[in-house]
């Protein structure tokens, strides 16, 4: 993939490849992702950049995780497996994730830059962290790192 190819282009190409390969499950998941992207573009009258696409992928993966837990609790392993397969397809569109130490280091840098002093600054720091780390780290992990950094 060259540098001029956007994530959106890659997803569209993957859809065509899945069609040619007659990979119905992968195709259905990619179409679901493209539909979510199109919906966001239409609703907000914007053209999505890679960061916005990653945010959508993140949201869809979180939905899959929640569904898997619910299906397993209900004893529906067949449905949980289907959601897990969709999650694996979606995971391919995320950039490599930062490890816990890297997240904490990035958050500490942010806290210092924003001159945040304590728990009262959590919202301000989280807003900046979301903008800077979206797609690079799980937000639950970022939130925990922010709490830790602001607790001193």
UniProtKB/TrEMBL annotation:
SUPFAM superfamilies: GatB/YqeY motif. The lineage of its organism: Bacteria, Pseudomonadati, Pseudomonadota, Betaproteobacteria, Burkholderiales. This is Aspartyl-tRNA amidotransferase subunit B. InterPro entries: Asn/Gln_tRNA_amidoTrase-B-like, GatB_Yqey_C_2, YqeY/Aim41, YqeY/Aim41_N. Transmembrane segments: none annotated. It comes from Pseudorhodoferax aquiterrae. Gene3D superfamilies: 1.10.10.410, Uncharacterised protein YqeY/AIM41 PF09424, N-terminal domain.
